[in-house]
Specification:
The protein folds into two domains: about 1-160, Trna Endonuclease, Chain: A, domain 1 (3-Layer(aba) Sandwich); about 165-195, no CATH class. About 30% of the residues lie in helices and about 40% in strands. It contains six helices and 13 strands.
Length: about 200
């Protein structure tokens, strides 16, 4: 099967604004939703800027899927593969959005992932994921796109693990209650123990 970038783009553009209510429910206090022009979108991996009442702006990328949800999430590792090498890295390396909204239109399902945690999870797990969840390349006209299909349960567990950490090192600062060191009792939390 030959994939058409232009067909995928047209499908995505036809859906613009379709998930505005989801933005409003997820982020709360949304005052404005702006869509970037196509050329600018492609360069920075941002589709939409959501502005909150506080003035904060949140950059999102929408990934519209024409297939029903099958329990996994595609991570693009190489956008353009030609002549045996990656010419353009996949979005996992280049995306500048803060959130990905993966829309599985036939299933009426939207998966929302924070990009910072997604990249941290990718850095920690990419070797294992590329071995375990490799799928055949998507053939386009004149090039291939390489993806992996990570089960959502695996991905979401990895995302959660990026949200906390353990750190063991003696703290140099003194507090009014005494001197403390960080004791790694069990991940994913840390505790402070008074130094005697």
């Amino acid at each position: 099967m030959i994939h058409s970038f232009n067909e995928q783009l047209a499908f995505s553009q036809s859906k613009e604004g379709a998930i505005d209510d989801i933005y409003k429910n997820y982020f709360k206090n949304v005052v404005k939703i702006t869509r970037l022009p196509f050329g600018q979108r492609q360069r920075v991996g941002i589709d939409t800027v959501v502005q909150l009442a506080s003035g904060e702006e949140i950059r999102t990328q929408e990934k519209w899927r024409t297939r029903p949800f099958s329990g996994d999430f595609l991570i693009e590792t190489c956008s353009v593969w030609k002549n045996g090498e990656c010419v353009k890295p996949g979005w996992i390396y280049t995306i500048d959005a803060e959130y990905i909204f993966a829309v599985y239109a036939p299933s009426q399902l939207v998966k929302i992932y924070p990009v910072t945690q997604l990249k941290l999870a990718w850095d920690s797990n990419k070797d294992d994921w590329m071995r375990s969840y490799h799928i055949p390349p998507a053939r386009n006209r004149g090039y291939e796109t390489h993806n992996i299909a990570v089960p959502c349960a695996v991905l979401e567990s990895a995302l959660l693990s990026t949200m906390s950490f353990s750190y063991q090192r003696q703290l140099t600062d003194s507090y009014s209650q005494g001197d403390y060191s960080v004791v790694n009792e069990s991940a994913p939390h840390y505790t402070l123990k008074e130094v005697s």
